[in-house]
Amino acid sequence: MNIEELNKNHGIDGQVKFMEGAGGFPFIRVDNAKGGAVISVYGGQVLSFQPANEQNLMFLSEAAYYEAGKGIKGGAPVCWPWFGPDPQQQGRPVHGFVRTRLWNVIKTETTGNGDSKVTLGLSDTAETRAIWPHAFDLDLEVTVGNSLNLELITRNKDTAPFSITQALHTYFKVGHIDRITILGLEGVSYLDKVDNYAQKTQAGAITINSEVDRIYQDVQKELVIDDTAYDRRIRIQSSDSRTAVVWNPWARISAQMGDLKDDDYEHFVCVETANAGSEVVEVAAGGECRVAANYLIERNIPELKPAA
């Protein structure tokens, strides 16, 4: 992709600028009066979001790979058309194939309330059909304002239905993992991937003091990460999703990962808006489905308490 042409066709003076990023990938820098973001066209992936006068919402590993065929560790990777291991055990990539593809820039715009909106897209090719034999259009709409809004839209171009699982695999930056509480999942059933997918029920609010990899089922539309180290709360509102994934690799796995520093696990948690586990979405021929998440940083609000 030619950076000069991208700026000519899609740049917005003072708001949206294209530049060469790490690994030579095209990056999009979004800035407006409300906040800023960096988006990688490779992977269709938001790498950072920083509301005005705030710290970054997202964690991005300093050891992340910026190489074709590898995912970028941090930000908000898109898992599609499956979440987790290859559901048919054919040796295909974990979390699907779109996070390691160069997307297309579809549109950039300024909304009526001054937010900046970037739409990226990916369509099937002979290469993708060899991996997953379906015709599709996939769009990611990124809206940057006081909050960050992500909406992933799947369109089935086939003559038969297909099924997907998916996730917005967002890495949230936290002051320290032992000073966060995740609220909104009290009493919810989950699959514990660390314990061989055992079915369990969340007792109270979530605190993390060891490896956590859970798929929560039939979740409510709003979750909160209460971060006392940063004295802030991250409010996550989702739509068209009944599944939430909570992940932190803890010390051993973090040390084993080449694209994480040994102590990185202390500074992020993934709380993912998803259709995963038993929530499989069937998309009709010619139809579409959507999943969306909105992330808002809050300060100076009354103390939150877990649900009874």
Key descriptive features of the protein:
7% helix; 22 strands; eight-stranded antiparallel beta sheet; 308 residues; Beta-galactosidase, Chain A, domain 5
User: What amount of the residues lies in strands?
Assistant: 35-45%
Oligomer: single chain
N- and C-termini, Cα separation: 53 Å
Q: Name the overall outline.
A: globular
Helical residue percent band: under 10%
Task: List segments where confidence is low: pLDDT < 50 over at least 5 consecutive residues.
Answer: none
Identify the CATH architecture.
Distorted Sandwich
Rg over CA atoms, rounded to whole Å, is 19 Å
Whole-number total of structural domains: 1
Task: Provide mean pLDDT, rounded.
Answer: 96
Q: Provide the CATH topology.
A: Beta-galactosidase, Chain A, domain 5
Q: Would you tell me the structural class of the helices and strands?
A: mainly beta
CATH class term:
Mainly Beta
**Number of helical elements:** 3
Query: What is the count of β-strands?
Result: 22
Element pattern in H and E? HEEEEEEEHEEEEEEEEEEEEHEEE
The biggest sheet, with number of strands, parallel, antiparallel or mixed sense and barrel status, is: 8 strands, antiparallel
Active site: 169, 272
EC number: 5.1.3.15
GO molecular function, one term: carbohydrate binding
Family: Belongs to the glucose-6-phosphate 1-epimerase family.
What does this structure look like?
The chain is mainly beta and 308 residues long. It has a single domain (3-298), classed as Beta-galactosidase, Chain A, domain 5 (Distorted Sandwich), CATH 2.70.98.10. 7% of the residues lie in helices and 42% in strands. It has helices spanning 3-10, 126-131, 250-256; strands spanning 16-20, 26-31, 35-40, 45-51, 78-79, 104-110, 116-123, 136-144, 148-156, 162-164, 166-168, 171-173, 180-183, 189-192, 198-201, 212-217, 222-227, 232-239, 243-248, 268-275, 281-283, 288-298. Strands 5, 11, 12, 14, 15, 16, 19 and 20 form an 8-stranded antiparallel beta sheet that branches. An 8-stranded antiparallel beta sheet has the order 6-7-8-9-22-18-17-13, with no helix packed on it. The longest helix has 8 residues, at 3-10. It is globular and about 50 Å long.
